[in-house]
Design brief:
The protein is α/β, with parallel strands linked by helices. It has a single domain, classed as 2-Layer Sandwich (Nucleotidyltransferase, domain 5), CATH 3.30.420.10. 32% of the residues lie in helices and 28% in strands. The chain has five helices and six strands, in the order βββαβααβαβα. The radius of gyration is 15 Å and the shape is globular.
Length: 160
Amino acid sequence: MDLLELTPTSLRCRVDGSWKASDPTTDLGWVCIQSEDNVRLLGAKCYRKTCSPLHTELEALLWAMYYILSAWLLCHVFETDSAELISMVQSPEKWPDFSNQLDELVRLRDSLPAFSISRIPKSRNKQTDCLARFSKLLFSESTFVNTFPPVWATNTGVSF
């Protein structure tokens, strides 16, 4: 079997970032799922302000990859609603302003048995969007990682 072949038991990790010029922080979210209704692990993080929305999307991917590796989860399929993030990952040489973060991405990617990233519609990324947007409710520079969503995320109308 090809390592990138998706099976019903394959884990996928959806990532998202929330960035607003008026906010003092950047907010990250990711959900590692086995199927649409089987969340294995999720994370939300209130993070220091990044330079741009695209930096935020990349930070969300890097954090998810790092945590998945440290939790010993076999997940090599990542999904995002950011077309620019996919372009950056596929052609890093075209993004010199992101070279430090992209070097970290290569290091993390090389630690996985396989790696793929694909674009999904925003409608399929609601859980991660919710985690990212509402992680600002965490204390400044705080992290939430668990197998169940935080109470503040379940009160938003998004099902986990």
